[in-house]
Specification:
Amino acid/polyamine transporter I
Length: 377
């Protein structure tokens, strides 16, 4: 609920700020217009890194569920082969046009909801109330770390804003889409968590929690259904992530903040093919390089930074006479912006020194790339 409230405040800021810009780029475009080229570049760079690390995280989850059917899938050549196959397949889908990629995401979205709904509707009858007696009560630091992990689970809505240039009437579509999605995700997460805690005493040590919980109250068949649902779900998320991530270098190149060859689009499919290929290769390398915990931590910290910058853009753009008019005005917008920034700052204070250094390293690499781009321009 706390994480859902934080993301709700951030979504409000995204709605107003995003309604000013119908073009492709999302948070990169907002930061560029509100705070200038340097901040804009770094937001675009960091946001692209979240797409890459997200791909590695979700791919790791996909492989862990596939191991139910293929026990050695995470070992040696099998892992390399399957990761390569996944990246190539999703690249081809995105190569032939945003319409095909969006349809594929819609199909995945519907299919993944069915096993989750069955998990909740069936599992709720097998809940053991005694599983909800918690000792000890978590302290604020533990709570903050839990929210940091959940930031990744709730995130992804910003990917839709990146593709605004390829969406029909985005100023009207996004408010409904983002709020409906946030509400649906919050309800589903709460229901799934209640069933998982209530039916699986060893939840904390499970690597495939929903499949293990389904085994308890349905048996092996229930586990297979959940595993298939998880594979479909993660595949859809990977597809959506590649779709959004490939548009960021394209948008940055269009603003002369990335090599101009990335602005190339396919003559027939109108997709940014070179940007797509570069993003696909980066995703492939991340899957073979990062482990789950490293990628998740870096991803959550970077997201909080980029979210805070977009939230800060709301009051700035309201005061800018040269800013495009907003098609969606948030009541008490500055209060929503301030609250979101404070919550992001609170969470960032709980990050370890190692994680801070990793993110600063990413920012330093971004600074080097920016200097190269400026010299080249």
């Amino acid at each position: 609920m706390i994480c859902g409230g934080l993301i709700g405040l951030i979504v409000l800021c995204f709605l107003e700020v995003g309604s000013r810009f119908p073009g492709t780029g999302g948070p990169y475009l907002y930061a560029h217009k509100a705070f200038g080229r340097v901040i804009g570049f770094h937001v675009g760079w960091l946001l692209w890194l979240t797409r890459i690390t997200s791909f590695a995280i979700i791919c790791d989850i996909l492989l862990s569920y596939l191991s139910v059917f293929w026990p050695t899938v995470n070992e040696g050549f099998s892992r390399v082969f399957l990761v390569t196959l996944i990246v190539i397949a999703l690249t081809v889908i995105n190569y032939v046009g945003v319409r095909h990629a969006a349809r594929m995401s819609n199909v995945f979205a519907v299919l993944k909801m069915l096993p989750l709904a069955l998990f909740v509707l069936v599992g709720i009858w097998f809940i053991e109330p005694g599983n909800f007696e918690f000792q000890p009560v978590p302290d604020t630091n533990t709570l903050a770390l839990a929210v940091m992990v959940l930031i990744f689970a709730f995130s992804g809505f910003e990917v839709a804003t990146i593709n605004a240039g390829e969406v029909q009437n985005p100023s009207k579509a996004f408010p409904y889409a983002l709020f409906f999605t946030l509400a649906l995700v919050l309800v589903f997460y709460l229901a799934i968590q209640i069933v998982a805690i209530g039916t699986l005493p060893a939840l904390a040590t499970s690597t495939r929690p929903l499949a293990d919980a389904a085994t308890v109250f349905v048996g092996p068949i229930g586990a297979v259904v959940i595993v298939i649902g998880a594979i479909i779900s993660t595949s859809g998320t990977l597809n959506a992530g590649l779709l959004g991530g490939s548009r960021l270098p394209y948008a940055m190149a269009g603003a002369n903040q990335a090599p101009p060859f990335l602005t190339h689009t396919h003559e027939r499919y109108k997709t940014p093919t070179r940007s797509l290929m570069m993003t696909s290769v980066a995703c492939w390398l991340a899957c073979l390089t990062f482990n789950f915990v490293e990628a998740l931590t870096i991803n959550s910290v970077i997201r909080l930074i980029t979210y805070a910058i977009v939230c800060a853009a709301l009051p700035v753009l309201r005061r800018r006479p040269d800013a495009s008019p907003a098609n969606y005005i948030v009541r008490s917008g500055p209060w929503a912006s301030g609250g979101a920034i404070l919550l992001c700052a609170w969470l960032l204070t709980r990050v370890s020194v190692t994680e801070v250094l990793q993110v600063f390293g990413a920012i330093a690499v971004g600074c080097i790339l920016y200097v190269i781009v400026v010299i080249r321009r």
